[in-house]
Structure formats: structure tokens, C-alpha cells
Amino acid sequence: MPHRPLVEVVEAARGGDPDERDALIEAVWPDAYRLAYTILRDKHAAEDAAQEACIVIYRSVETLRRADAFRTWFYRIVVREAGAVKRRRGEIAEALEATTHASDRETAIDVWRALATLPENLRIVVILRHFEELSSREIASVLRIPDGTVRFRLMVARRKLQPLLRDLWSTAPAATSEVHTHAI
Amino acid sequence: MPSELTTICRAARADIDVPATPLAAIRYGAAQRVAPPKQHRILPIVLSGFAIALVAAAVAGWKNTYVTLGHGYFTIRSQDIQYYNHPTTAELAEATKHADFHVMLPAGLPRGAKLTHFLRAGSSALLLFYSLPSSTHAERSAQIILANPKSFAFGSTPTPPNTKALKSFTGRHIVALFALPGEMVIVPQAGLTTKELNHMEQAMHMGHWRIVSSGGLYIENPTAADITNEARKTAFHVVVPSGFPAGSTVTFVGRSANGVALQYSLPGAWRADDHLAWVLIARKSVADNEIRRFMSHFPHGKVMARFDIGDETVVFPTSSLTKAEIAKIRRSMGLRQ
To answer: Which pLDDT band, with edges at 50, 70 and 90, does B228 fall under?
Structure first.
């Protein structure tokens, strides 16, 4: 079966056909899980959050007024469900943060640990911008904050991350446009 | 062109292993919760056949309603909540007539019980307040919710879109939840004694569902068929433990989508003080969450034994089960030591 654009899958799922809703969930599950995992850094918690988000999507996609609004709606739901799981489980990332001291800044650390050093409000914008590759306007819509706030937080976050990721930064492969795994 | 940071993050993201889509669990989870409101879809759900045209006019203005049970609270959400103080019989009859479920009003309440006020939430729920006779000067009252099973869900549900008026009422204790054909009866406040509740249960010929907590369904003294039925309703294949000491009986079964909890009454005079053993069967992929949630009910309890079988993790909190008895259960379930 040819790969359908997501907007078509969403449009079909809005019609209420269970098979189409199944197809939608199959299409978005990897993105939901990856985003949840990036936020929670725990595979069980990520699966829980992604599953909860997909339940909401499965149940409510019919209420979506426009198929092209799906992307923002989807991210908002996953971020919300991941936050709910995180609150329920306690601050998982805090444990990681606690292990990253100032002395670590002298050495190269991986992107996950670097991310864990950021406060929550900066971390989520970095995740949405650099992992999920949303525009600052889309992030503003997902998080329901002003666009300018998103850009400011991104700037602050990058400044904090740059020294931590100095080595990775310099050895990162040249950016290519074909590496794109997002269904959304 | 992507920045270097984006390239790093993209690589990290691509390294995340994605598990298979839990489609069955998602379908199940969606079906367990209240369907999203879409006003023009109410009619096909509520009505059928030739009555549609006639009743459609009658239900105009009646809105979708959501009744949820959480940890010691219940919530009623609706676009349309009406309050009736000192209601007349005609007002109650009118609310009953327009309900989208078969309303069976409470029966078998203590003699002298008086309906002091009620709330009508959309067409799917009635919250009745009764004052009860008391032998002391203390006031006694009871709240009883009658709801369309389709409007009912455990746990929390997201606020439905387009819900303008949202009302929530909190009770300290959920006493009982009964299922009648086409009607849920929820008694959320401990105004009624157990004896009075039992009398009401008999008078209304109600089923045996009883809730003691939230997040799932709990059945007291279940039959083998009850356990099998509950196991089937989970989002994973449940292997019910066997090999318990002869004479053990299951006194409770509780279920959520990702777990089944069983309480066994164990035989043996020496167990007099601790004759109950709990077992949690959790879906392996979410076992840690379920176990943590389950163990939070045992303030001083610890996990005594835990083993995996198939798609499930079986957990025994500390109880008077002996190591030999647990070993026998393991063997009986086909697991090596």
C-alpha cells in the first residue's frame, strides 16, 4: 500500500472509520513514543504516556475541526500526557540532573545528560525545536506561550547547552536533509 | 538548514527504539472512556427506530453528561445542570421522563427518608439528596447518583470540548457502585449504613458490583467466572495464578486496563492475624507503574516475590504465604525455580 501523507490519514480518521483511526494511531505512535521518551527518559513511562496520548487521539480525532491542525494538537496532547505521567512518577529527570555537576562542563557529555541539566521550561522548548523540529511559532501554539518567549528560551537554552556539548558540537556530521524520520 | 544542535538531537532521537504499537490497548482504553461529545451523534446512541423523530424534539436542549469516579471523589460534567430545591413530584417525574436511560429511582431507603433536593445533569444523570431519619440529633443524609452507563467512566477524563458549565461535587467516600440494566447507581457518601445499603440493594434487585477505591472495578467474593471475565477485560493476556494452598478462596478481584489484583483468604489457624494474601498481575510493559501504584496501598508492605510469565509480571506483597507455598504457585504456573 502506498505511503499516504499524514494529513490524508487524519482526514480519513476524522470520518469515524475504526480502520482509519487504527491507521492514524499506527502512523503517529513512533512520534508519540519518541517525544514521550525524550521528555521522560524512561521507556515504561514513555510507553504509558504515548499510550494515553494515543487513546485521547483515537477517541477525539473526530472532534478535530481541521486536519491540518492535527500536528499542533498531537504535540500538545503528548506533552500534556508526558507531563501527567511525570508528575505521577515523580521527577525522573531530577535524578539525572543531580548527577550532572559543574565539573562535567569540562568534559563532553551526551545530549541526554546535557538536556537534563536544563530547567523544565527550557528543556521542553529544546525538545520540540531540535528533536521534533517544530518552528518557534508551532512551539508557541503547543505550549500556549508567546512566540517571543519561545525564542528567548531557545536562546538561553542553547547558551547553556553549547559548553556541555562542545565536543559533540564540533564533531556533528554535516547536516543532511534526507535524515528525517518524522511521520508528523 | 538544520543547526548542529538539531543534527545531534536528530541522531539521538533516531536511536530511540520504538516498541510495537499497542493498538489493542489503545482501542480498549478509548472504548472504556466516555466518547467525545458530538451533539449530532447523541441521537443514534440514545435512540433507535421509529422513536427517533418523536423523541428528538423532546430531547432538544438536553446535553451530554460525564460522570467519573476517581480517588474518593466523583465528578459530574455537563453543559446543562439544573438544581431543584424541595422538588415536587412533577419535577422529579419530568426529569426522569426526559432521561436518556431507564431511570429506576432508589427503593428500600430507610423509612422516613425524604428527597430534599436534586440535580439534573443533562439527560444522563440525576444526583438525589435525601435526608434520613436519625435516632440522635445529628443530621443524616445520603447522596445517590443515577446515571446512564454510557456517561460513566472510572478515573479522570479530559474536559470535553464545548463544555461551558462544568460542575464538580466531591464526596469523601465512595460507598457503593451498582450496575442495573441500563443504569448505574452510585452511592458516594457514607450516610447509609451497610445494613441500609444492603436493604436498598435487595429492594432494587441490584448487582454485586462494589467499589472501594478508584481506577478500576472491584468485586467482592467473586466467582471463578467473575475472575475470568475481569481478566478478559484487561488489555493483555492474563494468566491467573494457581497452586494456592488448598482451601484458599478469592475474596476480591480488582481490575484496571493494565493490571488485575486478587485477594486470597488463606486457610490455616496459624495465619489468624494475617490470613489475606494479595497478588498483582500487571502487564509487563507497564509493570513498574502498576506495582508502585498497587504497593502504595500497603504502607509497610514490601514486595515478597515477583516473577514474569508471558506478557505479565506477578507480584506478591508481604503476606503469610510461605516460601514453599510461593514456590508451589510458581511451579503450578509452569515456571522453573
So the answer is: confident
Is B21 in contact with A26 (Cβ distance < 8 A)? yes
Q: Could A33 and B16 be called an inter-chain contact, meaning their C-beta atoms sit closer than 8 Å? A: yes
B119 falls within a domain: yes
Tell me: do B130 and B196 sit in the same domain: yes
* A138 touches B: beta carbon within 8 Å: no
Residues B61 and B35: their CA atoms lie apart, in Å, by 19
- Cell 472512556: give the residue: B33
- Cβ atoms of B163 and B65 within 8 Å: the answer is no
Which residues on chain A are in Cβ contact (under 8 Å) with B154? none
- Please give the pLDDT value at position B70: 55
Q: Which residues of chain A neighbour B25 with C-beta distances below 8 Å?
A: 51
Residue B168 corresponds to which amino acid?
S
Amino acid at A164: L
What pLDDT, on a 0 to 100 scale, did the predictor assign at position A184? 60
Q: How confident is the model at residue B283 (pLDDT cuts 50, 70, 90)?
A: confident
Task: Report the pLDDT averaged over residues B243-258.
Answer: 81
pLDDT at B136: 60
pLDDT over 80 at B56, yes or no: no
Asked if residue A71 lies in contact with residue A31, where contact means CB atoms within 8 angstroms, the answer is no
Number of H helices, E strands in chain B: 9, 16
Residue A88 in grid coordinates:
505521577
Contact, B207 vs B217, CB < 8 A?
Answer: no
What's the rounded Cα separation, in Å, for the pair A19 and A13? 8
* Per-residue cell: B140: 443524616
Q: Which residues pair with B309 in a beta bridge?
A: B312
Q: Which of these CATH numbers, 1.10.10.10, 3.40.50.2300, 3.40.190.10, 1.10.275.10, describes A91-172?
A: 1.10.10.10
> What does the alpha-carbon distance between residue B197 and residue A46 come to, in Å, rounded to a whole number?
43
Exposed, middle or buried: residue A92 (CB in 10 Å: 0-12, 13-18, 19+)? middle
3-class secondary structure, B156? coil
Q: Given this model, what pLDDT does residue B121 score?
A: 85
The letter for the amino acid at A178 is E
What was the pLDDT predicted at B235? 80
Tell me whether residues B14 and A131 touch, CB distance under 8 A.
no
Task: Kindly provide the ipTM of the predicted complex, given to two decimals.
Answer: 0.79
- Residues B44, B189, single domain; the answer is yes
Assess if CATH 3.10.180.10 describes domain A1-90. Answer: no
Looking at the DSSP bridge assignments, the partners of residue B119 are: B83, B127
Alpha-carbon gap, residue B337 to B327, rounded angstroms? 7
* Residue ranges of A 36-65 with Cβ closer than 8 A to chain B: 37-38, 43-45, 47-48, 51-52, 54-56, 58-60, 62-63
| Residues of chain B found within 8 Å of residue A45, distances taken between Cβ atoms | 289
The rounded distance, in Å, linking the Cα atoms of B29 and A60 is 12
